[in-house]
């Protein structure tokens, strides 16, 4: 089996649809170009039938992006697919993504159709999309809660109809990693034509398991992961692209899988999305949070000064951050104070480390974090006292 995992970014579709205010066409293009630089394989640019603004954004992105496949979403309806085909035809490479729900909860209560009718609708939609392109993705919405027999039947029918990627979404973030991995495993064992398509996954984060579930899926043969920058998306969001990319990179020896992501672009892209979407990133968010490469405990600070890999499993540079950050607090030891003084340009003879450390601890107990300007003020006061 191929060990390349395709990264399908849906920041501009699933991510954007969850924002309180829509992005402008210009802002979406800025994000799309950043995603192209980041090396994503497929950019889901929007849902063209949903509004004239979305149509225009998808068309603009399709025209400007050259190094990624541009994709548009459509329900399993001819008018949606036509809008996608129309918006995307200016692209160098494009994909039409069509979907229909497959769980009995959705089929009975939302679609109010029989299972047979839903299979027919999916097949008709895929055949309609084939008039525009041979790059067709089909999603079984709410696959995580779909009976496995029906899911197998739908996947087989979608591939026979011409879907080249079949996506298995955990739409409501309900499954657990072993359960979701099991669904993918079952599909590979039971669907006879499964090797004719790429199996994709699209996991939501309602129970905080979107990334773990996506990982379980690739361990069971999925070769496309749908995700968003900073994990933005409906409700609790989607699997976070930066986490997926850095898991596969950091644990490449264990997993034997690769992506095309240029990881040094991660921090820049995360900041851009956070700013334009007005969605702050929590400080302790893996990979891109302000504290992801900060060390506070004296033991950890001493460790990373001796050897960075004592407490860092990836370098800050690998995700585009200049260097790690050692917070100066009452837990910091003498070693880090001396190191910071050297970074600030002082020689050992410019300060008395014992005295400075005692004054530092007093200040840290009072104010929590001590900043560089505090440290310099402490040295200045120590010297002034000495001179008097
Ligand atoms: O969560 C979901 O099921 C979706 C589909 C449209 C892929 O976003
Ligand atoms: Zn979704």
TrEMBL record:
Pathway: Amino-acid biosynthesis; L-leucine biosynthesis; L-leucine from 3-methyl-2-oxobutanoate: step 1/4. GO terms for biological process: L-leucine biosynthetic process. It comes from the Bacteria. Residues 5-267 form the Pyruvate carboxyltransferase domain. The keyword Ribosomal protein does not apply. It catalyses: 3-methyl-2-oxobutanoate + acetyl-CoA + H2O = (2S)-2-isopropylmalate + CoA + H(+). Keywords: Amino-acid biosynthesis, Branched-chain amino acid biosynthesis, Cytoplasm, Leucine biosynthesis, Manganese, Metal-binding, Transferase. It is an enzyme of class 2 (transferase). Its EC number is 2.3.3.13. Mn(2+) binds at residues 14, 202, 204, 238. GO terms for cellular component: cytosol. Its cofactor is Mn(2+). GO terms for molecular function: 2-isopropylmalate synthase activity; acetyl-CoA C-acetyltransferase activity; manganese ion binding. Homodimer. Catalyzes the condensation of the acetyl group of acetyl-CoA with 3-methyl-2-oxobutanoate (2-ketoisovalerate) to form 3-carboxy-3-hydroxy-4-methylpentanoate (2-isopropylmalate). Belongs to the alpha-IPM synthase/homocitrate synthase family. LeuA type 1 subfamily. This is 2-isopropylmalate synthase. It comes from Planctobacterium marinum. The chain holds residues 1 to 388 of 519 of the full protein.
